[in-house]
Amino acid sequence: MTRALFLPLSVSGVAPGAQAGPDTAMLARWLPELVSRLCSGPSLATAYARLAGQTKEGAPVLVAFTKPMPDDQARALGKQHAAQKVVIGTLEDNEKVVVRMQILDVESGSSRLLEDITTARENLETLPGTITEGLLGALEIGDTPPAQEGLRFPNAGALRAFFQVRDVVARLEIGARPPAAKLEESLEPFFDLSAAMPGSDHAHEGLVATLGRFFDPRNPQLVEPAKPILARALEEFPESARLWHIRASMHATFSQPPASDEAEEALKKAIELDIDYLPARFALADLYRFLGRQEEEDGLYAELADHERHGAAVRERRGTALANRGELDEAEAEWIGAVELDPGFTPALRNLATYYNEKGDAERSGNFFEKAVARPEKMPSVLYEYAEMLVGRGEFAPAIPYLQRHLRFAPGHVPSMVALGNAHRGMGDAAAARGAYKKASDVDPRGPAGADARLALFGLDDPDEASRMDELTHKVWESTDEDGLGAIRSFLEGHEDLALWQPWYALGIGHRNLAQWDEAQTALSKANELCPGQPDVQTALGTCHLHFSMAPTGQMDGDRLNQAMQLIGPATRARPNDVSILSAFGLVYHLAGQFAEAERAYRRALEIAPEDPTVTQYMQSLEQWKAGNRAPVI
After folding, report:
1. What residues have CB less than 8 Å from 504, skipping those under 6 apart?
2. Were both Cys, which of 148, 239, 312, 383 would link to 338 (CB 3.0–4.6 Å)?
């Protein structure tokens, strides 16, 4: 909804696409292909880190590899699933070769020491053949050979730091994030790796990918603890255009009001460091659009018009800028131009598919989606978006394989799990639907997508009561009266253990519609407790704080205004084109006397919905406030 500024991040050097769902390819791209294959999950990276941690500090690494174990050997060692042998060989005191091995249970992730072999350097031939070959080849190179293709570790400390970094990134790929309180501790290996391997790109690329994930509207709880880590990263890598881009996003997206001057300065620094780094140029154009500086925005795109290497990306982003102004015909032409330059350019294909779907042209929309999902590694979220469209049309069977493919790219993407449950439910497979919903609820126990899963599970387990709840809440939307609110309260009293935010939200909206603000705040606070981060709940509860911020004397309650901003600000980042959230966001600035920011938010809302009566009323009130007539707004 609101017009909070979100500068999308990308480390790829091409225009970032829609920010819907994790792009695991972005996180993995900086790892050499071989190591990505060997360390395909966090368990193997952890095994490497643990094994390296047992080596002598400073010992040169001679070899590091994994090898699948035959099933009969794995069973003999008590492993029922597929197993791998993890091997690290080091040279200690320039004379002893120490080979440490672990056996790793691939499915469970458990590992234990298999054996330790120590031999003199001149007795390498006594070791098993595969190890001998690896060590002899390493020793021919010298005491600091590459442990894998494309990698060179000077000592065991560097190897340990590398695989600890790999462990962090692998866990991010499956949707696991460190708790905010331990964020700095979890990222310490990146700085250890930089110290152990000066000049290596691995620590820098990993920090870019990881910090880019933390400065994300979907993870607001990680933003504050990530700020000092970003400052430290910039001290370590002051010439990194991508880290300066992340700094700009921090200022523009996570400051209230947005720190536009600081964001512009950081983006210009990124461009100065790397003139071909297009994401910073696109972000600067977005910033100019947000600030109403259209001439400068157009000037940036004019500079990029003849950019040969990324012409398709430039036209796609130019089209998106035009669409944000409501110039949809011109946007369509730019997206088509991007596809003409690069027929497989996924972001433009996705935009055209979405555009035609909104116009009701199902055939053209489907055609462009089919082309977009042909190269999902460029933008995995398009698999989810296409499947969501299919589920919305009732085409459940074809949606399922697209959702399964997306979950292979993004195993922790809860909305895909919920959509998969919806597709199975539409096919009449209640057991499969329940499994998908249960997994979504477990992965996201307090977030909005997990809440959708719990609502769906309630519908499967008790369809009559779920239908009754739906009927009661819809009555509140149609017309609020005391009888309707009493029916919802009675329902909640009969379902004390039901952890669903929807009936509490409906109760709060009903009380608000009757101007019963105390009761509304109580109910909406309960809804927010059950589902923190749900944008509709945040906005409605924030509006209650706005109401209470206006004292009869005309004085404003600053604490209430701050509480409103803390709720509505994140909602705008989650849904930046939602008119109701935009209008509430503008209202915060309106009541705080920051009229320019308020007008900017209202005008953005009117670009989307020119005749919206609430926004029109707020705009009229704003003009009165500017003239000194501070009549109540809500």
Report:
1. 492, 523, 524, 526, 527, 530
2. 312
What is the domain count for the chain?
A: 3
Do 469 and 569 sit in the same domain of this protein? yes
Give percent above pLDDT 90 in the chain: 31
Burial class (CB in 10 A: 0-12, 13-18, 19+), 255: middle
Shared-domain flag, residues 432 and 487: no
Tokens of 464: 């009559």
Is the model's pLDDT at 130 over the cut of 50?
A: no
Chain position carrying tokens 């210009």: 268
Residue 230 within any structural domain of the chain: no
3-state SS record for 171-228: HHHCCCCCCHHHHHHHHHHHHHHHHHCCCCHHHHHHHHHHHHHHCCCCCHHHHHHHHH
Compute the distance between CA of residue 105 and CA of residue 79 in angstroms, rounded to an integer: 6
Task: Mark whether 442 and 510 lie in a shared domain.
Answer: no
187 within some domain? no
Helix axes 595-608, 579-592, angle to 10 degrees: 160
Residue 206 lies in a domain: no
- How far CA 248 is from CA of 266, 288, 606, in Å, comes to 5, 13, 27
Residues 617 and 534 in one domain: yes
Question: Are the CB atoms for 442 and 176 separated by under 8 Å?
Answer: no
Of the listed ranges 120-124, 581-585, 595-599, the least confidently predicted one is 120-124
Report the C-alpha gap between 108 and 27 in whole angstroms.
24
Q: Report whether pLDDT(300) > 80.
A: yes
What per-residue confidence (pLDDT) applies to 465? 93
Compute the distance between CA of residue 372 and CA of residue 379 in angstroms, rounded to an integer: 8
End of a domain among 461, 477, 507? 461
457 lies in which domain range? 400-461
Are residue 497 and residue 616 in the same domain, yes or no? yes
Mean local confidence (pLDDT), 146-162: 52
Query: Given pLDDT bands bounded at 50, 70 and 90, which one contains residue 609?
Result: confident
Q: E strand or H helix at 631, and its extent?
A: none
Distance CA 558, CA 188 (A): 38
Say if residue 602 is in the same domain as residue 567.
Answer: yes
- 454 and 481 share one domain: no
Compute the mean pLDDT over every residue in the chain, rounded to the nearest whole number.
Answer: 76
Which of the four pLDDT bands, split at 50, 70 and 90, describes residue 129?
A: very low
Which residues fall within 8 angstroms of residue 195, CB to CB, at 6 or more apart?
none
Residue 263 resides in a domain? no
Radius of gyration of the chain (CA): 28
Whole-model pTM?
0.66
Domain boundary among 107, 125, 156: 156
Mean pLDDT of 556-569: 86
